[in-house]
Design a protein that fits this description.
Blueprint lengths: L1 H48 L4 H19 L1 H26 L9 H8 L2 H6 L10 H18 L4 H23 L4 H29 L2 H10 L21 H16 L6 H14 L3 H17 L2 H21 L3 H15 L5 H17 L10 H5 L15 H31 L7 H14 L10 H17 L2 H15 L5
Helix pairs in contact: 1-2, 2-3, 2-4, 3-4, 3-8, 3-9, 4-7, 6-7, 6-17, 7-19, 8-10, 8-11, 10-11, 10-12, 10-18, 11-13, 12-13, 12-18, 15-17, 17-20, 18-19
Length: 495
């Protein structure tokens, strides 16, 4: 009788503990939602009364809220960070339209500061970097450290730290995702939701922007003198949606589309066609190429049932494209961009890239240590109306200028180790469609290595998030053995 009583008491305790945990979780979520509502309300109120104040208030509030969410709910924090990357450039244009244009707005720091909060995990678990599985992160951080030291000898502290934020913040977020891989399923779900609704948002606004071009977007294009964005008139622009450039918008839509193909949500039937149309309207050929390679990987890796869903999605997008090109303006734009693939030597952008790389390599041979962090935006920045290639248009140039040959070799060694580990060493789980989609995203971005700077800023956030989640998908034992074996095969002796 006493044994039965003890069993019942133990069961009751577990039930009470479970209910208590659920109540605490529910309470934390309510607090987080209330904080988010307060944040949005404050931004709207201040923006309507004194929009210029948002340039400093918005990043400060975003940073404070990110800390609060990070402590109370990591999943809500992740979603908040994603949406800051989605909407902050849009808010910047609204503020510039109402308060006057500024070439470099501190408002854009909000995304970086909120994402940097995840660096707490690296600070508290820095010893993890000694593990073989963390070699990609260790190499990347070592390369950044080298470039930072060189940068401090040549450029102002502000310029150096701004560049460091661009390079470092995406890695901090990826390390956080990997270090807490025991919550992989939770983080997978919130990232999927963020991309699902974020892609719908970017796509819908992008299509609206192309056909109607809101005044704040038009004025921003004029102030920026962004000739590479097209003519600041409806039906004549390259869509950049709520982001700050067509290439960035295309990259986010590309990643979103690849993830949507692996989702089962009904909302994807609305999000995918809208996003694909906006994706085409960006006229970003580098992301077009990336999407093709990403879809090819998906169709090879997915099961037959899932493959049918992807093929159906592709056919829907193709039909949508054929219907859209019935509009003369769209037909001319798409056909012109596609024809450039057949004869790249006549393409101005292609020739600028080739010429820009040649000139840069000749200069860098005289500076093998590079110019350090801060050099890209201080000495090599291009204006909105300049058609010539800038370091932000190439991962090769960005890394060599900022990290030098030594730093670039170490950084890229980490990337190569991560890539081989993810694609060839980590045990594949065919049932994890998200993991397959994430690897497709990585492949799609790596195809743009020569065409965009994919490791820093907004690009870097998506790339390193994908790397972090892809590494987290494997078991610790799988990754530790795989990374060590890959490193021994790929790294030069003594590196």
């Amino acid at each position: 009788m006493s044994v039965m009583t003890n069993v019942q008491t133990s069961a009751e305790r577990r039930t009470i503990a479970s209910r208590s945990h659920k109540q605490k979780t529910s309470s934390k979520q309510k607090q987080c939602v209330s904080a988010l509502v307060l944040f949005v309300g404050t931004v709207v109120l201040v923006g309507s009364v004194m929009p210029s104040a948002l340039r400093y208030l918005y990043p400060a509030l975003a940073f404070a809220l990110a800390i609060f969410l990070f402590v109370r709910s990591r999943t809500i924090y992740i979603g908040f960070v994603f949406w800051l990357w989605f909407v902050s450039p849009f808010l910047r244009r609204i503020v510039d339209y109402r308060a006057g244009f500024v070439p470099s707005s501190p408002l854009l720091l909000a995304s970086f500061l909120a994402t940097a909060v995840s660096g707490y995990v690296l600070v508290t678990r820095v010893r993890m970097l000694s593990r073989p599985a963390l070699l990609p992160f260790s190499c990347a951080l070592a390369g950044i450290f080298f470039g930072t030291v060189v940068g401090f000898t040549r450029y102002p502290v502000v310029a150096v730290m701004q560049a460091v934020l661009n390079w470092l913040v995406p890695i901090l977020f990826a390390f956080f995702l990997y270090a807490e891989r025991d919550r992989y399923v939770e983080y997978q779900e919130v990232i999927q939701r963020s991309f699902l609704y974020g892609t719908l948002w970017l796509g819908a606004y992008g299509v609206y922007q192309f056909f109607f071009l809101p005044l704040w977007d038009r004025q921003w294009m004029i102030d920026l003198d962004a000739r590479t964005f097209g003519v600041p008139e409806a039906l004549q622009i390259r869509v950049f949606s709520t982001l700050n450039a067509p290439a960035t918008c295309a990259a986010y839509l590309m990643a979103g589309l690849l993830i949507l193909f692996a989702l089962k949500s009904r909302i994807r039937f609305v999000a995918a066609p809208v996003a694909f149309l906006a994706f085409i309207l960006t006229s970003s050929r580098s992301s077009w190429i990336g999407l093709v390679f990403g879809i090819f990987y998906l169709t090879v890796q997915l099961s037959n049932k899932a493959r049918v869903r992807v093929v159906a999605g592709i056919l829907t997008c193709v039909i949508l494209l054929l219907v859209a090109t019935q509009l003369p303006v769209l037909d001319v734009m798409v056909s012109t961009r596609l024809q450039s693939f057949t004869d790249p030597k006549k393409d101005v952008s292609y020739n600028e890239r080739v010429g820009g790389h040649v000139v840069a390599f000749e200069k860098l041979l005289d500076e093998p240590m590079g110019e350090g962090m801060g050099s890209v935006d201080t000495d090599h920045t291009t204006t909105g109306g300049d058609a010539s290639i800038g370091p932000h248009d190439s991962s090769i140039l960005e890394s060599l200028y900022s990290l030098g040959f030594p730093g670039s070799i170490v950084y890229l060694a980490g990337i190569i180790v991560a890539g081989f580990t993810i694609l060839f060493r980590v045990k594949k789980r065919s049932s994890d469609l998200f993991a397959i989609a994430i690897r497709a995203v990585i492949i799609a971005f790596f195809c743009q290595f020569y065409l965009n700077s994919i490791f820093v800023g907004a690009f870097g956030f998506v790339v390193w998030t994908a790397i972090g989640m892809a590494l987290a998908q494997g078991t610790p034992k799988d990754l530790s053995t795989a990374s060590l074996k890959t490193a021994r095969e790929l790294l030069p002796v003594g590196l």
